[in-house]
């Protein structure tokens, strides 16, 4: 079977201090979805934490304007239980790919399993997570995540 794909991409700059984000509209066969790859600033002090929270709000705004299902991927520099993260989930209706698979701490890699989950894959409800796992170290301070998703969320 031949898989036909197409995509339209743009680079988004949230602020002077942020790493650019990549926003893509993807069409895989007859299914269209949005992909947003992000890396908000690390909250190393109160000013940077406020900037990170602002970037998460900007991400929420982008997701709220999607016309198709989508996913947000990246090092969000925030944990599953932080107020800024919980607001992002609530305002977008996205769910974390870890749901049902455990916390899977991804940072700091040398100190796992005592780490925290900073790296995330947030999905529209139309996506199904088939598998998610921490992968072997790649000489980074973050442990890579392997995530397999499909369109068409299964009902339980």
UniProtKB/TrEMBL annotation:
Segments crossing the lipid bilayer: none
Gene3D superfamilies, sorted: Endonuclease/exonuclease/phosphatase
UniProt cross-references to InterPro entries, sorted A to Z: Endo/exonu/phosph_ase_sf (IPR036691), Endo/exonuclease/phosphatase (IPR005135)
Pfam family, one: Exo_endo_phos
Domain Endonuclease/exonuclease/phosphatase: 28-142
MF terms (GO), sorted A to Z: catalytic activity
Species annotation: Candidatus Venteria ishoeyi
Name of the featured protein: Endonuclease/exonuclease/phosphatase domain-containing protein
């Amino acid at each position: 079977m031949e898989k036909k794909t197409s995509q339209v991409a743009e680079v988004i700059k949230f602020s002077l201090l942020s790493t650019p984000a990549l926003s893509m509209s993807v069409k895989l066969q007859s299914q269209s979805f949005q992909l947003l790859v992000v890396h908000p600033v690390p909250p190393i002090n109160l000013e940077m934490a406020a900037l990170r929270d602002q970037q998460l709000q900007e991400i929420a705004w982008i997701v709220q304007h999607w016309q198709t299902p989508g996913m947000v991927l990246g090092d969000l520099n925030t944990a599953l239980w932080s107020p800024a993260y919980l607001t992002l989930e609530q305002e977008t209706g996205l769910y974390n790919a870890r749901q049902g698979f455990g916390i899977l701490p991804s940072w700091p890699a040398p100190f796992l399993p005592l780490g925290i989950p900073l790296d995330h894959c947030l999905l529209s409800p139309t996506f199904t997570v088939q598998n998610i796992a921490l992968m072997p170290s790649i000489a980074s301070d973050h442990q890579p995540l392997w995530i397999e998703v499909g369109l068409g969320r299964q009902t339980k």
